[in-house]
Amino acid sequence: METIASRPLSLTKTPFHYCPGCLHGVAHRLIAEAVDENGLRNVMTGIAPVGCSVFAYKFFDFDMAEAAHGRAPAVATGIKRARPEMHVFTYQGDGDLAAIGTAEIIHAANRGEHISVFFVNNAIYGMTGGQMAPTTLPEMKTTTSPYGRKVDDMGHPIRMCELMATLVAPYYIERVSLLSPADIIKAKKAVAKAIKYNKEERGFTFVEIISTCPTNWGIDPIKARDWAKDNMLPFFKPNCFRDRGEGVE
Amino acid sequence: METIASRPLSLTKTPFHYCPGCLHGVAHRLIAEAVDENGLRNVMTGIAPVGCSVFAYKFFDFDMAEAAHGRAPAVATGIKRARPEMHVFTYQGDGDLAAIGTAEIIHAANRGEHISVFFVNNAIYGMTGGQMAPTTLPEMKTTTSPYGRKVDDMGHPIRMCELMATLVAPYYIERVSLLSPADIIKAKKAVAKAIKYNKEERGFTFVEIISTCPTNWGIDPIKARDWAKDNMLPFFKPNCFRDRGEGVE
Amino acid sequence: MKKEMICAGFGGQGVLTIGKFIAQAAMQEGKEVSWLPSYGPEMRGGTANVSVVVSDTTIASPIVSQADILVALNQPSLDKFGPNVRPGGLIIINTDMCPHGIKREDVVKINAPMSEIAKELGSLRVLNMLAIGVIIGTTGMVSYETIEEDLESFLQAKNPDLLEQNIAAVKRGIMIGNSK
Amino acid sequence: MKKEMICAGFGGQGVLTIGKFIAQAAMQEGKEVSWLPSYGPEMRGGTANVSVVVSDTTIASPIVSQADILVALNQPSLDKFGPNVRPGGLIIINTDMCPHGIKREDVVKINAPMSEIAKELGSLRVLNMLAIGVIIGTTGMVSYETIEEDLESFLQAKNPDLLEQNIAAVKRGIMIGNSK
Amino acid sequence: MPRMTVDPTYCKGCGLCIAACPKKIIRFSDNINAKGYHYAECFNQDSCIACKMCYVTCPDVAITIEK
Amino acid sequence: MPRMTVDPTYCKGCGLCIAACPKKIIRFSDNINAKGYHYAECFNQDSCIACKMCYVTCPDVAITIEK
Amino acid sequence: MSKVLMKGNEAVAEAAIRAGCRLYFAYPITPQSELIEYMAKMMPKVGGTFIQAESEVAAINMVYGAAGAGKRVMTSSSSPGISLKMEGISYCAGAQLPAVIVNVQRGGPGLGDIQPAQADYFQATKGGGHGDYRLIVLAPSTVQEFADMAADALDLAYKYRNPVMILSDGMLGQMMEPVEFRPAKTEEEVQELAKQHENWCICPNEDGVNRHHHEINSLEIDPLVLEKHVNNLFVKYAEIEQHEVRCEEYNINGDNEILCVAFGTASRIVKSAINDLKTEGKSVGLIRPITLWPYPYECVARALHKNVRQVYVFELNKGQMLDDVKIAVAGRCDVKFWGKVGGIIFTPGEIKEKLLECF
Amino acid sequence: MSKVLMKGNEAVAEAAIRAGCRLYFAYPITPQSELIEYMAKMMPKVGGTFIQAESEVAAINMVYGAAGAGKRVMTSSSSPGISLKMEGISYCAGAQLPAVIVNVQRGGPGLGDIQPAQADYFQATKGGGHGDYRLIVLAPSTVQEFADMAADALDLAYKYRNPVMILSDGMLGQMMEPVEFRPAKTEEEVQELAKQHENWCICPNEDGVNRHHHEINSLEIDPLVLEKHVNNLFVKYAEIEQHEVRCEEYNINGDNEILCVAFGTASRIVKSAINDLKTEGKSVGLIRPITLWPYPYECVARALHKNVRQVYVFELNKGQMLDDVKIAVAGRCDVKFWGKVGGIIFTPGEIKEKLLECF
Ligand SMILES: Cc1ncc(C[n+]2csc(CCOP(=O)(O)OP(=O)(O)O)c2C)c(N)n1
Ligand SMILES: Cc1ncc(C[n+]2csc(CCOP(=O)(O)OP(=O)(O)O)c2C)c(N)n1
Ligand code: SF4
Ligand code: SF4
Ligand code: SF4
Ligand code: SF4
Ligand code: SF4
Ligand code: SF4
Ligand SMILES: [Mg+2]
Ligand SMILES: [Mg+2]
């Protein structure tokens, strides 16, 4: 008998510490598989953010760095510039990347750093217990928008892909989701493409991954996916915003 | 005899400390006139940035605050929220707004704070002696890009208006220039519109003003304007990106 | 009088609430109290525990290193905190989740299949109220009346339908406590 | 031997360069030196000055509060630093820009219409080289040869055409210095 | 014949694989693992078509598929 | 009759008004101000048409136009 | 008002609102998030402003603005987030702005952990930011005190136009204790408070033509002016040192053989140990600094009664306040230190053991 | 190598490159901008990396990354910019990363001015960031020393895997003095240096299957683990305290009636005054701490010869190192302080006057 699907080598044996049904785990697997498939495990390094995925450094089985909240792109820049022979990605949540780390992600992208960014958007601050994120939807209740996100006062959700696409340098920008097996298979392609471009030193690659946070949304994992399909996808439309490798501008 | 043009009341008697021919002075005058014309002098407050215009608090004759480098939009938020009866603007350079202050400007804009932002883009760090700014043009030489700005390494100039226009909340976004009397007259209209919308509490207004830095560009004020016309305007195209008051989206 | 108590169990078992009700009631009865939860890593899961001190005089340290009372709703909690109970102290054990018990002869042990009883009473959710009952039934730390009052005002606001079930659980707990 | 000098003037007059050439030459001649500029607000304009110390022994403080030599290229500089010259010290005055001079009888004063002379020599830009000449002509702090050498290697790289003009200015300065 | 196995040390009983399986051959076990979760198990290996949907959805990468 | 005046305390002699004046009636004065600048002056008030172009361009708001 | 059982994080927020705080800007971080969440819930109810800022940097600069507008304003965070505020705090100090900052400390350095610690003492008391400035630093040791300090901090901040930091920790933030709140200020009182500052703050100019030109600013490019400004700050600081030193003496008397010094959470544990030793006939005193700046040097010196043969400093860090105790003791007695780090709180038993070693 | 006349800002940059620094990340600020500009010019010539970061925060985090990759890396700024780095510096300390940070101090607090000051002593030596950590802090007093310290800082940083700060000021940054540079490391030597760290840093795994999994990290969520980690840091710090204390004794002898303590720029002025007094037959000694942390407590204590009746601390601030001197002196002698602030440097004459008041 032949094993046709099992834990990729680029994942350690440590079980994820995520909540049951949390899709961070799926995103991890996709990255790990892409690293394996591209044969990069010996020259890959990832930057864990501050957020639920803070322990990502325990889960990926290659060199990892843990960055200060929001600063993963700066840390990645430092590593990539110091060791151009390494391939570097950051893994960041929506609070990390789109709030405190706004400047760092925009300027790393603008410099066209040769790194990949995996941006897991679950519309909330998972780790700290469900506060509003920059990507929280209008009227959505969180612990810091207890009466719903009022856009006039608290701002509108920010669409990072659209914003990044105003910059000249990024080579590849795509938004995908993990809300069904089919979506995951599409997401896998995007993640694999980013890693491949990374391997080929094409430039800055950015994949936004629409995810869930069953715990802080207060619903079970399956309902969470449905909620995200109905509410997040209409606003955060999956789309390839740029792919210079395939002539998409 | 009637005086038909002279120093507006909203300017103090203090001479500007700018270099001869520096257009920061023109931008100041336009704002002061707009404040006078809208009768806001008693309820207006401006936030000076860190940059050549750091002393703006000495030049405008109404209450002023001096903000930390890049943080003027946050300071403006604090003031406006604390005293909604006041009308608040920030005055910021390209280093201040588009480098260190990237996160603050984006999030103040995204919240739709009821403030006006006057963004003076001279493609360089004037105050500290001519270092590269996020808006420095490709191949342009500065003290920190002594061999010219190499876009592959140092990034492309950032177009802030285009970037801000990806956000939902801003009410008015326009780019103007000060490179000829005619341009100045157009710029005056944009500045006046921003202040008027501010008075009417319409929302967040943003005017990018293309300017010069004769000193750090190393050319005289008249050549500086020509250089900017030839080099900056093709990249930073004057345009009204949004004007909800007139249905421009 | 000074009583130091630890309540411990899995995340969802409501141990923090047990502590809160006891502390709240004791405060209303004129005691000094403190309630100190463990707070886990910035994410879900794992175990939870709370230290409660009730005293006639000012409470210096809210940390309970030697407990008078331990409420252990699962085995890991019993293993972890069991040894810290003062000789002569009390351990309340949810036998459903503590298959191995604890080997100590110098303490009073109350063993009850609390999860089962809670389910019988209608829902695992009343496990914590059951535990409160056992505590007051055994120790008389606070009076039943105060707990009832607090439960009423708490559930009135949140979910009046559940009041009866919860009160029944407290009462059943008291019976268990009294009987030992 | 220890000489403390201040050179001061408007921003564009090249006072920092005067100081730099003197310090550089003195260093090459085996002296200890320090060069400390004023640096203005983070923007243009205004006045500039530099403190230079040349000594046979280690220089403790680079700050010149009592100068042996003052080179004043304009009136504000003369007004500001004139009083800080040690009795018996030397003040080199550009009379073109110092219409009011200074009232001190306890110092040696060298008055020369330096701006005019510089223009005569071809450009206001050589004002600083003229001043260097005056300094070495009066004090012999450093030798002409070293300055010439430095000028050569400096301008060779940057602008060989200007060399002659600059050397002429230094020489003319020395003459002025010697003559007093 | 395909074989799907769940490693109980990883499974958190989220149920996503159960929803994903086109053959509906996954269920929660009566047993619990060390963390207290009723983990998933395949109760009908014979029907498994090795489509990998369960593997693809599993956030805890607890599943192995053999063929 | 229109009148343009430059206040020497503000003028820095940048020359932008000179370039802007359609009537070419502005020049640098021979005098210098306290900061050492040859300030601008109108040498032919009679020709001034009060178009305000000088005022509009002046970065130091040194100019007053009367009519 | 009767007592309520409340978490420190929530009690301090409630007390701040009652004391007239109507603006709050912060960014979430454990173990202070209940504070921001409480503010999110309650500020809209009192017509106040709550903004979850994009970062701690933005939050402190919003505070700078609101304080510059003369309104009662607060921010809070925990250790790493407080580090990000250092530039802004230095600006507030320089511009003499009445900002109140709550630090619910956790273990460091770096990301560290989220358990209680006292390892930001240096940062709070010795200028974590650049330049010569001082924060008034208040260190609560109970939830009641934590709540009371919200009002005290706001009062002090406005009295001296100086930023005030409340240096608490994860234990005080997370634990519940009975609190009795001071009466809430009425809306008129809150308005009145803001009015008092209209002689310097950013505010409408109601006099019409006699415009005011108020400047909120920390820049003085002329060194002579900056020198004067900094010297003025230190005149103010001297005044604060004279009037605002606060400390608690616990069991201090002529019999003390050991003098302990501990603040905040650590002091509670030390008190337990002292009580215990008392029953064994051993006399140990405790100085608990309540203001960490101005530091109660004299209280410590005064408590060095003749029988004291050991000064013992206990902190939940590697010995930071220790420096100040050494300065206070000035060689008159040996000073020992013991502490725990990483978010671990020592137990009364451990302290007792340490103290017994000295008998 | 013969001497060259160079600005401190440029000399330190040149020396760093010679010592193998190949990555530099910073943001412009007066009075350190010549440093960043020199790096912008020279790094491309040696195949190194220069990035003008989008902010000081980004710069220190780039340093975190590059140091984590085992390469020699530096950043620099001046006071307000250094405050913004506090979180990042605490992270570097926690993750034990060899980062070198140059602070060319200016007057504060807030925006302050751009003239030389020493007002960031507290920040540099007492944890401006959160948590228990220490930076090695070197204080140059000449351009030569400033340059030498670039190499020393890089060496120390890697020797101990600890961040090192060079605490200079606007005067040292802006002044020119003769410098003699140490020989430049060859490209092979630079490569070799990086190799030495491949047992812990982020780097390609050349062993193929025997992959390594290196982690650069400051998070330890289990308090017991964090405790151990912090305790280990302090074992390292104790080692540094034992081996790396550096100070200069100037005119220290048994005749001293006054003992001065001053560092950096201030010490130069004090030396002038001491020389002057010597000619008048008055004996004054000076301890100049070169490492501000580890602080030369013992040197100060040892220099308290029997004739000393006054210890005098001079700083370009309001009295920050003063705390450490008091700790060192431990009450054995009266300690006085005098300083200037706001970017004003005192003159030898002023110091002399202050000293004469004590005779
Ligand atoms: C400087 C700083 N500020 C705040 C925090 C607290 N914090 C930890 S994770 C987090 C938000 C995480 O949200 P997100 O990035 O969306 O990730 P998620 O947990 O949702 O995956 C915050 C605010 C911190 N650790 N450091
Ligand atoms: C935190 C901080 N970093 C850096 C500086 C130094 N600084 C002052 S102004 C300036 C740049 C100004 O450039 P810009 O915003 O473009 O304004 P301009 O002078 O060109 O008008 C910098 C980097 C500072 N004062 N504070
Ligand atoms: S809190 Fe939300 S994002 Fe975090 S692990 Fe749980 S489900 Fe996932
Ligand atoms: S440096 Fe440039 S921007 Fe600054 S005042 Fe001078 S010309 Fe204007
Ligand atoms: S491989 Fe397909 S058929 Fe087999 S268990 Fe998984 S989902 Fe079901
Ligand atoms: S998807 Fe994975 S974790 Fe969830 S129940 Fe199935 S096997 Fe278990
Ligand atoms: S108003 Fe017009 S015509 Fe008159 S001076 Fe000015 S530019 Fe010339
Ligand atoms: S434009 Fe203004 S500053 Fe320039 S020369 Fe004319 S009057 Fe003077
Ligand atoms: Mg999130
Ligand atoms: Mg600029």
What is the compact description of this entry?
The complex is a heterooctamer, with 2 copies of chain A (about 250 residues), 2 copies of chain C (about 180 residues), 2 copies of chain E (about 70 residues) and 2 copies of chain G (about 350 residues). With about 180 residues, chain C is an alpha/beta fold.
Please tell me about this protein's structure.
The complex is a heterooctamer, with 2 copies of chain A (249 residues), 2 copies of chain C (180 residues), 2 copies of chain E (67 residues) and 2 copies of chain G (359 residues). By secondary structure, chain C is α/β, with parallel strands linked by helices. Helices cover 41% and strands 25% of the residues of chain C. Chain C has one domain: Pyruvate-ferredoxin oxidoreductase, PFOR, domain III (Pyruvate-ferredoxin Oxidoreductase, domain 3), CATH 3.40.920. The longest helix of chain C has 17 residues, at 163-179. In chain E, the strands form 2 sheets. Chain E has a two-stranded antiparallel sheet with strand order 1-4. Chain E has a single domain, classed as Alpha-Beta Plaits. The mean pLDDT of chain E is 95. Chain E has helices at 16-20, 53-57; strands at residues 3-6, 26-32, 38-42, 63-66. Chain E is α+β, with helices and mostly antiparallel strands. By secondary structure, chain G is α/β, with parallel strands linked by helices. Helix content of chain G is 41%, strand content 18%. Chain G has 2 domains: 4-195, Thiamin diphosphate (ThDP)-binding fold, Pyr/PP domains (Rossmann fold, 3-Layer(aba) Sandwich), CATH 3.40.50; 247-356, Rossmann fold, CATH 3.40.50.920. Chain G has helices at residues 8-18, 33-42, 56-68, 79-84, 86-94, 121-125, 143-160, 170-174, 187-195, 223-243, 264-279, 297-302, 321-329, 348-356, and strands spanning 4-7, 23-26, 49-52, 73-77, 100-105, 136-138, 164-169, 176-179, 215-216, 247-250, 258-261, 284-289, 291-293, 310-315, 335-339. A 7-stranded mixed sheet of chain G has the order 3-2-4-5-7-6-13, with helices on both faces. Chain G has a 5-stranded mixed sheet with strand order 10-12-11-14-15, with helices on both faces. Chain G is globular and about 75 Å long. Chains in contact: A-B, A-C, A-E, A-G, A-H, B-D, B-F, B-G, B-H, C-G, D-H, G-H. The interface between B and G is large, with 35 and 42 residues. The structure holds thiamine diphosphate (TPP) (2 copies), iron/sulfur cluster (6 copies) and magnesium ion (2 copies). One iron/sulfur cluster (SF4) binds at residues 4, 20-23, 25-26, 42, 48-54, 65 of chain E. One thiamine diphosphate sits between chains B (50-53, 69, 93-96, 120, 122, 124-128, 133) and H (27-29, 56, 80-81, 84).
